[in-house]
Amino acid sequence: MQRLGTHLETERRANVASPAHRKRGLSIGTRLAVTTTLVIAVAFALLAQQLTTRERARLLESKAGAADMVGALVAASLSAPVDFGDSDDIRPQLDNLRANPQISAASVYSADHKTLLGEWRREGAAPLAPMGDDENIDYGIDALTVQRNVVGRKGNVIARVTIAFSLAAENREYRDNRIRILVGASVFASALAALLVFLSGYQIVRPLRRMVDVARRLEGGDLNAHVDREYSGEIGDLARAFNTMGRAVAERHERLAREVELAERIQTSILPRNPQVVGLDISAAMLPASEVGGDYYDVLQQEDGCWFGIGDVSGHGLNAGLIMLMMQSMVSVLTRRDPDAAPREVIAALNSALFDSVRLRLDMQQHATLTLLRYRRNGQVAFAGAHEEILVYRAATGRCDVIDTPGTWVAAVRDISKATVDSTFQLCSGDLLVLHTDGVTEGRNAEGTMFGVDRLCREVERVGAGSAGEVQMHIVQTVKGWTHAQDDDITVVVAKYHA
Questions:
Q1: Which run of H or of E encompasses 143?
Q2: How far is CA 315 from CA 126, 279, 368, in A?
């Protein structure tokens, strides 16, 4: 249970430290506030624009009515002068428009638009041309232009008068109204947005934050964490579903803890306890990582010595532990059946059986490294199989021999007999045999540097004169102190030969 909690805590810290976890955008409250404010602001801006546009249309409509009335009066006053051809009287009639500050220009043309009968303009105003044959009102940006027909005695159109009215006052009032409406709409929109943000924050954001806090507590290992408040609606459904999920996580965690504890107990219970072999002082230790590992070691006693086994199944977890158990059982059976068998024969037979079980029956793709050593009382050691280097500390020189393990993996292919050979070496009195798994040499410090075989040799040479137990403890403690985060099993077997 403690190791499972350590594993979960390691994953949690890795997730917290990962860049994807650190990269965090705006909170839901902030996004909701920004979105609400923008939507309300746009809506009120459109509404303000529509209101001001309607207000301008109302002003123009009122202006057009007054302009049309003025145009009709001017057309009526010009009827007699134009009809009688009194051009001298046309100018005074147009000059009367000067009294109206909203009128900027006026002109009178003949009915056929060819002859200008009279014209009056304020300084800077553009000349006015007829706007067709019909009476008309033209709405410009800065001016409103009215055209009226001048009717003679016989009821026919004898001229056309065009008058331009300035829209400066209306435009100024339009701008003032727009500013007032926009300011009022902005204030109202801001107040409404603040109210909506407050209500949504109270009804949505706060419950979600509570659930996030509970999720973090669950992630940190507090399996009793739950949402302790009742909410209504969809938030309430989410809170209840969240609590249900939390209970399910707790149940699965407990079940997994029991399974892992059982697997750990099985894995450690099959390890040799205080192996006693004539002529050897033996000490061994396995430090599992946070999961059930695939490290294997064994010491199988024989009348004239013993068998050593050291190996490592690829991967971690229950699958690796299961294959390790199979390997341990097969080695035990094969060496008991024929204690004097050559190590290469045992490796080849084990590989064939293990390949069928792992690849064909279990449908797994895992393999294992394995080296078997046959020690005899006279100090001769024969070995076969591929695993980490074998270290032999020579008491006579105080130096370590590094012995490679030629061969290939087991459970990768069905037949490895041609790739498996026997090799031998000789132990002298006081020599140390050191077997280890890759959790020792591949352990990395905080800078990412591996422990390595050379460093292991130096540590063995430092304490090689001591007992097997002292050497084993020194190696394990040194590797633990070096390794920044143990992610693989650490297994060390030390045997000191006494001739």
A1: strand 143-151
A2: 92, 36, 9
**How high is the pLDDT of residue 7?**
45
How many helices, marked H, and strands, marked E, lie in the chain? 13, 15
Query: Does residue 31 sit in the same domain as residue 101?
Result: no
Flag whether 355 is in a domain. yes
> Mind listing the pLDDT tens digit for each residue in 396-455?
999 999 999 999 999 999 999 999 999 999 999 999 999 999 999 999 999 999 999 999
For residues 458 and 466, what is the distance between their CA atoms, to the nearest angstrom?
Answer: 14
Rounded CA separation 309/435 (Å):
9
Residues 237, 157 share a domain: no
Across residues 89-111, what is the average pLDDT?
85
Q: Which of 342, 352, 341, 348 is nearest to 417 (CA)?
A: 348
What is the pLDDT averaged over residues 148-162? 88
CA-based R_g, the chain, Å: 50
Give the domain range for residue 465.
Answer: 272-497
Residue 486 has pLDDT above 80, yes or no: yes
Q: Give dist(CA 195, CA 211) in Å, integer.
A: 24
Co-location of 279 and 246 in the same domain: no
Do residues 165 and 102 touch, judged by C-beta distance below 8 A? yes
Count other C-beta atoms under 10 Å from residue 51's C-beta.
16
**Residues 179 and 164 placed together within one structural domain of the fold:** no
Number of domains in the chain: 3
Residues 397 and 285 in one domain: yes
Q: What pLDDT was estimated at residue 37?
A: 73
Please state, in angstroms and rounded to a whole number, the distance separating the CA atoms of residues 488 and 474.
19
Give the separation between CA 103 and CA 66, rounded to whole angstroms: 11
Residue 278 neighbours by CB distance under 10 Å = 12
Give 100-107 contacts, CB < 8 A, sequence gap 24+.
100/70, 101/166, 102/165, 102/166, 102/169, 103/70, 103/163, 103/164, 103/165, 103/166, 104/143, 104/164, 104/165, 104/166, 105/163, 105/164, 106/74, 106/161, 106/162, 106/163, 106/164, 107/161, 107/162
Domain boundary among 108, 142, 169: 169
